[in-house]
Amino acid sequence: MTISKGDRLPSTTFTQMTENGPEAVSSADYFAGKTVAIFSVPGAFTPTCSAKHLPGFIDKSEALKAKGVDEIACTAVNDAFVMGAWGKSAGAEGKVTMLADGNGDFAQAVGLTMDGSKFGLGQRGQRFSMIVKDGVVSELNVEAPGDFKLSSAEHMLEQL
């Protein structure tokens, strides 16, 4: 079942690349007591994700935080090494937290997976964004296949 506005996020574990290597991040702990703008991309280093989606949130990070967002996070069904390298190459450090959903547990738990097999990607997370307040979804923006409008940083700014 797909998550909806007003639902509490399910408990899963992300992995984040740190100076000490990959570290587990509990979703319950990460979202507790703060407002988080989280967005999901089908894959790190893929065209729309690298040219528009991640850069949009990096560019708009100060504006989002000025409107009450405490943290901005990017997730994808990629490993922590790839997510860490992508964040570093895009200049995300200090602006967007890169959370690896290596096994797709988060994407599955929120019911937002896609089959990218015809592109050699296998099961991935759909392109979407959410505003999560203290673990509860207050806004949910799910893109139609191939689209990039609703999950953008610009659209999220309009929602805040």
TrEMBL record:
<feature type="domain" description="Thioredoxin">
    <location>
        <begin position="3"/>
        <end position="160"/>
    </location>
</feature>
<dbReference type="GO" id="GO:0034599">
    <property type="term" value="P:cellular response to oxidative stress"/>
</dbReference>
<dbReference type="GO" id="GO:0042744">
    <property type="term" value="P:hydrogen peroxide catabolic process"/>
</dbReference>
<dbReference type="GO" id="GO:0045454">
    <property type="term" value="P:cell redox homeostasis"/>
</dbReference>
<comment type="similarity">
    <text>Belongs to the peroxiredoxin family. Prx5 subfamily.</text>
</comment>
<dbReference type="InterPro" id="IPR013766">
    <property type="entry name" value="Thioredoxin_domain"/>
</dbReference>
<keyword id="KW-0676">Redox-active center</keyword>
<comment type="function">
    <text>Thiol-specific peroxidase that catalyzes the reduction of hydrogen peroxide and organic hydroperoxides to water and alcohols, respectively. Plays a role in cell protection against oxidative stress by detoxifying peroxides.</text>
</comment>
<keyword id="KW-0049">Antioxidant</keyword>
<dbReference type="GO" id="GO:0005737">
    <property type="term" value="C:cytoplasm"/>
</dbReference>
<dbReference type="InterPro" id="IPR013740">
    <property type="entry name" value="Redoxin"/>
</dbReference>
<keyword id="KW-0560">Oxidoreductase</keyword>
<dbReference type="InterPro" id="IPR037944">
    <property type="entry name" value="PRX5-like"/>
</dbReference>
<dbReference type="Pfam" id="PF08534">
    <property type="entry name" value="Redoxin"/>
</dbReference>
<protein>
    <recommendedName>
        <fullName>Glutathione-dependent peroxiredoxin</fullName>
        <ecNumber>1.11.1.27</ecNumber>
    </recommendedName>
</protein>
<dbReference type="GO" id="GO:0008379">
    <property type="term" value="F:thioredoxin peroxidase activity"/>
</dbReference>
<dbReference type="InterPro" id="IPR036249">
    <property type="entry name" value="Thioredoxin-like_sf"/>
</dbReference>
<keyword id="KW-0575">Peroxidase</keyword>
<feature type="active site" description="Cysteine sulfenic acid (-SOH) intermediate">
    <location>
        <position position="49"/>
    </location>
</feature>
